[in-house]
Specification:
- By secondary structure, the protein is of the alpha/beta class.
- It has a 6-stranded mixed sheet, with helices on both faces. It has a 3-stranded antiparallel sheet with strand order 3-2-5, covered by helices on one side.
- The protein is built from 6 helices and 9 strands; from the N terminus they run ββββαββαααβαβαβ.
- It has one domain: 3-Layer(aba) Sandwich (Rossmann fold).
Length: 223
């Protein structure tokens, strides 16, 4: 897939936890001619764009256009066939995947606490979670929560992790309109000056986030 360049949109807000690596110290993140194919089918072709430090971006395009593949390359979970990504290391990125990847036997507070320093008070984590979850679910194993609640726990864990960048893959799927608005406001509050890259189908998501759009463009199936 090709890319159109995105312009900068700032989305920094104070939050409960401080990032380990301040976003102010980071460089712009540059994707240069990134290519990826599977079994002779090209998924990404010469993907080139820049994310300015501290900006909010929505990675957009129809299903099957390579959004998840590009995020996996960024996170170091896939190796690109060619090209480069500069200005960030995988260990500096907090991620929310399409699947929740929660520990089912732990509570929401315990799941989020897993990515935080041991000295972090559970009461702080609870206060953060109660911005987007009802108090009664805080002591329940996440296996007992609805799908929408589990998505919110996963999102809160990504936002809590000390990082320079936050990457989220379809984070608002399954949320009704009112909850989506609530969760997007939560993301903006807890961005803390970090770069945000959100894969989404929703034009309204980009508008609510105040994000620039990075558009994947279609390429031929064959290498």
């Amino acid at each position: 897939m090709g890319m159109r360049d995105a312009s900068r949109q700032d989305a920094g807000h104070a939050g409960a936890f401080d990032p380990k690596d301040g976003a102010q110290a980071g460089d712009a993140i540059r994707f240069t001619a990134v290519e990826k194919s599977y079994n002779g089918r090209r998924v990404l072709r010469s993907v080139t764009f820049t994310l300015e430090n501290g900006g909010a971006y929505c990675l957009m395009g129809p299903s099957g256009m390579g959004k998840t593949t590009l995020l996996r390359v960024l996170l170091g979970l896939e190796r690109a066939d060619s090209g480069s990504i500069e200005g960030i290391r995988p260990g500096q990125i907090a991620a929310m995947f399409q699947e929740d990847r929660l520990c089912d036997t732990l509570t929401p507070v315990e799941n989020v606490a897993l990515v935080l320093p041991p000295s972090t008070r559970r009461s702080e984590v609870r206060v953060m979670l109660e911005e987007i979850l009802p108090p009664y679910c805080m002591e329940q194993p996440v296996a007992q929560l609805s799908g929408g609640m589990r998505r919110r726990v996963s999102l809160a864990r990504a936002m809590a992790f000390p990082s320079r960048m936050v990457v989220m893959d379809e984070p608002f799927t399954g949320l009704d309109k009112a909850t989506r608005v609530q969760v997007i406001e939560f993301v903006k509050r807890h961005a803390r000056g970090r770069t945000l890259l959100v894969a989404t189908h929703g034009e309204d998501d980009a508008a609510l986030l105040g994000a620039s759009k990075v558009l994947l463009t279609e390429v031929s199936d064959k290498c």
